[in-house]
């Protein structure tokens, strides 16, 4: 626990005027990917309609809002910020004016925007205060004002997009879907009753009754309009999907590169049990994302699993809060310990990752205060030693506890009786994909897309 979500995007090109309604249902399903704001832009071919605000999906939309967005094209976005604080000014989708030519929803992050800024500045466009998503939208808008089609605008602009991006871009009568050449962020599309739907995760297709077709390929642009669907190769693609999608970010009922996220997480737990053989009375998962790994650990080790941490379903994820003090307060609101289960027991506590260590420390304290005799803390991923620059809001490298502490030192810091990580090789075996298909930058420090001046912030140790 401790990593902020990436954003979630969902889009529809419909043969009816229900695109916003389907997008709304898709955003519900993708709520786990962003909890600071939500928005939908729609079009019926004449102009843009927009509704967005800070808050959860349930807070942002009312029935009248969705009814006011009738149209056959819509794109939606659930956001957590990778730029500044939770400001309403930077909610998405990006639409600068209802008379604009283009609206954009972005999942990912561009760590290098020098070319974009230089291009826009030379065109007389102000860039001060704009985030990466807004810079991309400005570039597309510039070309469309000059008379280019949506497709031509993307072709003219995409080489300036250096980083991770799964984009939904719409004009008043077309929808374009674009994925970066490494495919770091997931993006798929499906079909329902002649309508095309696009989503950050396949789990959202089930919510709207769509059938999965395939993933958008790295470096591909898909265009949908009244003529149907067309595909264009923008760049030579080389799949490098973020390994953290398997470990934590994606919903367990999603499919990534043909792999069930749930089954991968179970296998992570199985590998963890093979690498860390411990004697204990019970295995306790930290809900919800660590549950499959704990099941796998329990099945492999023979140690019974107990759900001794009860989650308050009405408290959203702790790491969405902007300050550590607020995160700490949220932990006690979010999780309660069932004392009768842990009292007098040796406990193996399982989580999917450890970042700063503050959450782990609090949970170990809660278990021991509830009578646990010993608490062993196991993590179903390798140590996070490097910051992410592709859309995860990791802290600076010096704040990543595993970047400067050994497992023994971490154990002492959080008050556990032992700490163990899954090995890098164990992670690869559990995921079941070749290393070359994965972005493992948080673990290995290998960044497949240029991170610009951020390179100077990275320290490598043997």
TrEMBL record:
Cofactor note: Binds 1 Mg(2+) ion per subunit.
UniProt cross-references to Gene3D superfamilies, sorted A to Z: 3.40.50.2020, Glutamine Phosphoribosylpyrophosphate, subunit 1, domain 1 (3.60.20.10)
Enzyme Commission numbers on file: 2.4.2.14
Signal peptide: none
Alphabetized CDD domains for the sequence: PRTases_typeI
Highest taxon in the source lineage: Bacteria
Active site: 7 (nucleophile)
Molecular function GO terms recorded: amidophosphoribosyltransferase activity; magnesium ion binding
GO biological process: 'de novo' IMP biosynthetic process; purine nucleobase biosynthetic process
Entry keyword Magnesium: yes
Essential cofactor(s): Mg(2+)
Annotated pathway: Purine metabolism; IMP biosynthesis via de novo pathway; N(1)-(5-phospho-D-ribosyl)glycinamide from 5-phospho-alpha-D-ribose 1-diphosphate: step 1/2
Keyword Glycoprotein listed: no
Binding site for Mg(2+): 289, 351-352
Main EC class the enzyme belongs to: transferase
Annotated keywords: Glutamine amidotransferase, Glycosyltransferase, Magnesium, Metal-binding, Purine biosynthesis, Transferase
Residues annotated as domain Glutamine amidotransferase type-2: 7-227
Reactions catalysed: 5-phospho-beta-D-ribosylamine + L-glutamate + diphosphate = 5-phospho-alpha-D-ribose 1-diphosphate + L-glutamine + H2O
Family statement: In the C-terminal section; belongs to the purine/pyrimidine phosphoribosyltransferase family.
HAMAP family referenced in this protein's UniProt entry, alphabetically: PurF
Function comment: Catalyzes the formation of phosphoribosylamine from phosphoribosylpyrophosphate (PRPP) and glutamine.
Protein's UniProt name: Amidophosphoribosyltransferase
Lineage, broadest ranks: Bacteria, Katanobacteria
Gene: purF
């Amino acid at each position: 626990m401790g990593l902020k979500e990436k954003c979630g995007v969902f889009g529809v090109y419909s043969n009816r005027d229900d695109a916003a309604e389907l997008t709304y249902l898709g955003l519900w399903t993708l709520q786990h990917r962003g909890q600071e704001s939500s928005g939908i832009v729609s079009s019926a071919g004449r102009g843009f309609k927009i509704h967005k605000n800070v808050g959860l999906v349930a807070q942002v939309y009312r029935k009248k809002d969705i009814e006011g967005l009738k149209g056959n094209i819509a794109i939606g976005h659930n956001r957590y910020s990778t730029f500044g604080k939770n400001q309403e000014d930077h909610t998405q989708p990006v639409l600068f004016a209802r008379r604009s030519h283009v609206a954009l929803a972005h999942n990912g992050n561009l760590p290098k925007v020098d070319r974009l800024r230089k291009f826009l500045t030379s065109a007389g466009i102000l860039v001060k205060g704009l985030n990466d998503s807004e810079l991309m939208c400005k570039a597309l808008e510039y070309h469309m004002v000059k008379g280019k089609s949506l497709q031509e605008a993307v072709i003219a602009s995409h080489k300036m997009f250096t980083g991770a991006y799964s984009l939904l871009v719409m004009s008043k009568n077309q929808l374009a879907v674009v994925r970066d050449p490494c495919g770091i962020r997931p993006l798929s599309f499906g079909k329902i009753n002649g309508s095309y739907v696009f989503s950050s995760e396949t789990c959202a297709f089930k919510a709207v009754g769509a059938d999965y077709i395939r993933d958008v390929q790295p470096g591909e642009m898909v265009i949908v309009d009244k003529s149907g669907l067309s595909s264009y190769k923008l760049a030579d693609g080389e799949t490098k999907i973020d390994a953290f999608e398997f470990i934590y970010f994606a919903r367990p009922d999603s499919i990534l590169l043909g792999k069930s996220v749930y089954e991968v997480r179970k296998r992570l737990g199985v590998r963890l049990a093979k690498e860390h053989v411990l004697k204990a009375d019970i295995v306790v998962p930290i809900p919800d994302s660590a549950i499959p790994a704990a099941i796998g650990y329990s099945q492999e080790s023979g140690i019974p699993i107990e759900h001794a941490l009860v989650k308050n379903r009405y408290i959203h994820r702790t790491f969405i809060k902007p300050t550590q003090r607020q995160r700490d307060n949220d932990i006690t609101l979010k999780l309660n310990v069932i004392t009768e289960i842990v009292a007098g027991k040796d406990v193996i506590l399982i989580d999917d990752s450890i970042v700063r260590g503050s959450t782990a420390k609090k949970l170990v304290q809660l278990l021991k205060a509830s009578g646990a005799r010993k608490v062993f803390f196991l993590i179903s991923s390798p140590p996070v030693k490097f910051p992410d620059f592709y859309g995860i809001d990791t802290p600076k490298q010096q704040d990543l506890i595993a970047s400067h502490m050994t497992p023994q030192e971490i154990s002492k810091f959080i008050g556990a009786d032992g700490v163990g990580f899954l090995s890098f090789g164990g992670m690869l075996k559990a995921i079941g994909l070749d290393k070359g298909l994965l972005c493992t930058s948080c673990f290995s420090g290998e960044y497949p897309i240029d991170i610009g001046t951020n390179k100077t912030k990275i320290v490598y140790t043997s």
